[in-house]
Structure formats: structure tokens, C-alpha cells
Specification:
The chain has about 270 residues and is mainly beta. It has two helices and 14 strands. Strands 1, 2, 3, 4, 5, 6, 7, 8, 9, 10, 11, 12, 13 and 14 form a 14-stranded antiparallel sheet that branches. The radius of gyration is 18 Å and the shape is globular.
């Protein structure tokens, strides 16, 4: 049951992935927070002379996910089947065609590589807080993504847009000293529902509301015995221009137990 709960956490936290399906709408939000937003602080507009780490012509420039070295987002989750937890994402390296996202969950640190394309930002790995969640003193899960399609954050998003992002992976699971093989895939389907105001501990924002329908299929094999797992969920995400995702909520049933999770941005720092 603990393994299944953590596998669900893997799906839920990496849910913000998306494929093609960008629009030509130009950003209308002038909020470009170039400061540290503490808990309860409303986003402010920067001075016109301030410029982001990535240039306007950079492949990594994205409306809903500011790629800047040193950018940091801290989140807290409540109601998850994997219990309450907090994590911090930080962009630790930016390249011309990609960047590295490092996530800290308690004493655990995990990295995730991303690729920047004209159509948007592409997560190349399962990772970040999700990977950290899947590793503790009793369990270690090492997965390698062998196929990626779609993008994680389209360059632009307009209300009514639909897109998809798929990953397939293989690796090993070690639980209490028992090692097994794991293969599987994640498919995420997104729909942009429109803009609305959202309030989280980090502030109040005008956000694009996104519905995410996800399916996780994984087959774990221990000592010749296969354990197939299929988990489906529906989550809502709120993406803010020039800030990133600030909130996610979802509900469902797992292992006969109902759950209702909320993840909220607590604070952020965009150099």
C-alpha cells in the first residue's frame, strides 16, 4: 500500500506536463516578479529596467514558467495519500537549450533535466519532488525515461486549448531489501479552462485554470510475480504568467480510501 501511495504521489506532483497545443495570444499580464515573494505577499510589478536571466529570444523563454537560474518555488501539500509534505523547486542551471530543476524534499534532493524547444518546455525525466517522494529509508525507486512526446509548458496558452504529454520509463524498485523491475508510462491530457483569480499563501494572482486528466500505468515485478498498477486522476492547476504554477487541487479514491489534495505555493524568488 505504501508503494502504491508513493506511486500516486509520483503522478500527482509531475502532473504539470503538456504537449503541443500553443496559441498565438501574447502575454497580457505585466506582473513580472523580480523579487522574493514571502508568504502572504502579493505579487508586485518590477521596474521596467529589470530583465530576466533568459532573453526574449531565448528558447527557454516561457509565458507560464520563468526559466532563470536561481529561481525558487516552495510548496506545501495537504490531503495527499502520501501524507502532508513540503518541497522546494530551484532552477540550478540554465543552458541555451535547456535547464536543470533541483527539488528538495526534507533531506532528499533530486534533479530533473528539461529541454527548451520553440513549442515549449519539455521535462525529459520523472523527477523533482516526485522522485524524492519515491525514495525513503524503506524504498528506493530509480526510473529512466526512454520516450517523451509533447511538451510540459506550451509557449503560449489560450482558453480552450487542449494538449497532451506522454512519458514511458523503466527501472528498478527496492523495498526493504527486495529488488524488482518496473516499467510503465504516464499520459497526461490538458484543457485550458480560462482565467480566474486565485489566492495562495504566496499572494493573489490572475491565473490560467488548467484541467489535467492523467493515467499512470506501471508494472512492478518481484521474484517473477508481476504487480500491474493503473491509477487515474483529475487535477486542476492554476498557472500564472511570469510566476509558474501556484496551486493544484484534486480528489479521487485510492486503495479504497478517498482523498482530496491541495498543493499551494508558499513563497517564491525570481532573480
Amino acid at each position: 500500500m505504501k508503494l502504491l501511495s508513493l506511486l500516486l504521489a509520483l503522478l500527482l506532483i509531475t502532473a504539470c506536463s503538456s504537449p503541443r497545443g500553443s496559441s498565438t495570444q501574447e502575454p497580457s499580464n505585466t506582473e513580472e516578479p523580480n523579487h522574493t515573494a514571502q508568504s502572504g505577499e502579493t505579487t508586485a510589478t518590477p521596474a521596467p529596467s529589470e530583465t530576466p536571466t533568459t532573453s526574449e529570444t531565448s528558447l527557454c523563454t516561457n509565458t507560464y514558467y520563468p526559466v532563470r537560474e536561481g529561481a525558487t518555488w516552495s510548496y506545501k501539500s495537504t490531503g495527499s495519500p502520501a501524507s502532508e509534505y513540503s518541497f522546494t523547486d530551484m532552477i540550478t542551471s540554465v543552458r541555451e537549450d535547456g535547464f536543470t530543476l533541483t527539488s528538495q524534499l526534507g533531506d532528499l534532493t533530486r534533479t530533473q533535466e528539461w529541454e527548451c524547444k520553440p513549442e515549449g518546455l519539455v521535462a525529459l525525466q520523472l523527477g523533482g519532488a516526485s522522485a524524492a517522494t519515491l525514495n525513503n529509508e524503506n524504498m528506493d525507486l530509480n526510473l529512466v525515461v526512454d520516450e517523451v512526446s509533447g511538451v510540459t509548458y506550451p509557449s503560449q496558452i489560450t482558453s480552450g486549448d487542449e494538449w497532451q504529454h506522454n512519458l514511458s520509463f523503466a527501472g528498478e524498485i527496492n523495498i526493504a531489501g527486495q529488488t524488482g523491475e518496473a516499467t510503465g508510462s504516464v499520459q497526461a491530457n490538458f484543457t485550458a479552462l480560462g482565467e480566474e483569480s486565485v489566492t495562495v499563501p504566496a499572494g493573489t494572482f490572475n491565473a490560467m485554470k488548467i484541467q489535467l486528466d492523467s493515467d499512470l500505468n506501471i508494472n512492478a515485478k518481484f521474484q517473477g510475480i508481476s504487480v500491474p498498477v493503473t491509477i487515474s486522476s483529475t487535477y486542476t492547476y492554476w498557472l500564472v504568467k511570469n510566476v509558474g504554477w501556484v496551486k493544484a487541487t484534486g480528489a479521487g479514491e485510492f486503495g479504497g480510501q478517498a482523498f482530496s489534495e491541495t498543493i499551494e505555493l508558499q513563497s517564491y524568488n525570481l532573480p
